[in-house]
């Protein structure tokens, strides 16, 4: 007898939004007269990037949801996901959403270099309109043992890799965050290894889960969440999900990330979620769900084992977690 087992990220079909309804979201919003309300909300603190006057890509959202990527828990309320943030360039505390509004997101360019066919600098507004945008519901697990579940909009990182056209010798993708001393007060803290740098192997970067987020909750991604584009790797701890990308370099040498430079004994290159491997200073066995008092068990690879486990099957001796 064939037994169908639900995967950790699956919802019952009855809980999914009908595709025809989803595709007509824009029309429904306009017909209900809600557009002015959405524009008014975009002027609130933390949501300036959703204003078409401030972000010329606002017309792209919302985008169609890819139903392959679902959740086993409710979506985190937007107010929590956009006001409880790590962005050390604006401070070493969680309440940086106000300060992050100083981030200048226009003009914004992304450079591609290293082992590529041709180095280039591309305007973000041009780049994003060339990409296959979709929405994905992903869990996010912070190394600090809190979690959230949010609707990211963006495109597969593989599309970005294909756009860059790396050479055959490229084994890693190195990414850097914007480092603007005029708008980012945290850069004055000279003991941190600025600019914020992170990396993935080419195999990870082209895995179907790896995602470049340009939107959140059906709008352009807010500044505090990494505007205008950031990495999302839901099977890894959140410090790998580098924000506000400006440089993408392909190399044959494994990069050393920001937190690995600070404390290699606690933060490694791979940083895959594993409840059985504690951080040096706390357990990773469970996690606090953001916006609630609930604690839930942490899942191996944050619940995405079926997508990514094969990436690491032949890496005996590697410190894959943390």
Question: Could you name the key traits of this structure?
Answer:
alpha+beta, Sulfite Oxidase, Chain A, domain 2, 322 residues, seven-stranded mixed beta sheet, globular, 12 strands
**What about the largest sheet?**
7 strands, mixed
Number of helices: 9
Gross morphology is globular
**Secondary-structure content class:** alpha+beta
CATH fold topology: Sulfite Oxidase, Chain A, domain 2
Overall residue-averaged pLDDT value: 88
Q: Using DSSP, what is the number of strands?
A: 12
Strand content: 15-25%
- Compute the separation of the termini in Å: 41 Å
Please provide the ordered H/E string of secondary-structure elements. Answer: HHHHEEHEEHEEHEEEEHEEH
Protein architecture, described:
The protein is an alpha+beta fold and 322 residues long. The chain contains 9 helices and 12 strands. It has one domain (22-311): Alpha-Beta Complex (Sulfite Oxidase, Chain A, domain 2). A hairpin with a 5-residue loop joins β11 and β12.
Briefly summarize what is shown:
The chain has 322 residues and is α+β, with helices and mostly antiparallel strands.
């Amino acid at each position: 007898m064939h037994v169908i087992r639900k995967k950790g990220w699956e919802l019952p079909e009855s809980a999914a939004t009908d595709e025809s309804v989803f595709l007509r979201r824009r029309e429904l919003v306009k017909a209900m007269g809600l557009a002015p309300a959405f524009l008014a909300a975009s002027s609130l603190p933390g949501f300036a990037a959703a204003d078409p006057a401030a972000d010329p890509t606002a017309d792209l959202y919302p985008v169609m949801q890819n139903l392959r990527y679902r959740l086993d828990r409710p979506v985190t309320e937007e107010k929590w996901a956009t006001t409880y943030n790590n962005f050390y360039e604006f401070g070493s505390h969680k309440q940086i959403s106000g300060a992050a509004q100083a981030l200048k997101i226009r003009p914004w360019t992304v450079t591609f270099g290293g082992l590529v066919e041709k180095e280039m600098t591309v305007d973000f507004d041009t780049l994003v309109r060339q990409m296959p945008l979709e929405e994905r519901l992903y869990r996010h697990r912070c190394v600090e043992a809190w979690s959230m579940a949010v609707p990211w909009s963006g495109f597969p990182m593989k599309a970005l890799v294909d756009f860059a056209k790396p050479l055959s010798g490229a084994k890693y993708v190195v990414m850097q965050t914007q480092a603007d001393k005029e708008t980012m007060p945290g850069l004055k803290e000279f003991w941190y290894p600025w600019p914020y740098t992170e990396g993935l192997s080419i195999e990870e970067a082209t895995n179907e889960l790896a995602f470049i987020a340009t939107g959140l909750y059906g709008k352009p991604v807010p500044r505090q969440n990494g505007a205008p584009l950031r990495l999302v790797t839901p099977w890894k701890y959140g410090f790998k999900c580098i924000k506000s990308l400006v440089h993408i370099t392909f190399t044959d040498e494994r990069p050393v990330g920001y937190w690995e430079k600070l404390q290699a004994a606690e933060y490694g290159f791979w940083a895959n979620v594993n409840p059985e491997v504690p951080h040096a200073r706390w357990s990773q066995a469970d996690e606090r769900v953001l916006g609630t008092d609930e604690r839930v068990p942490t899942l191996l690879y944050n619940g995405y084992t079926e997508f990514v486990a094969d990436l690491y099957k032949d890496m005996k001796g590697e410190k894959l977690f943390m």
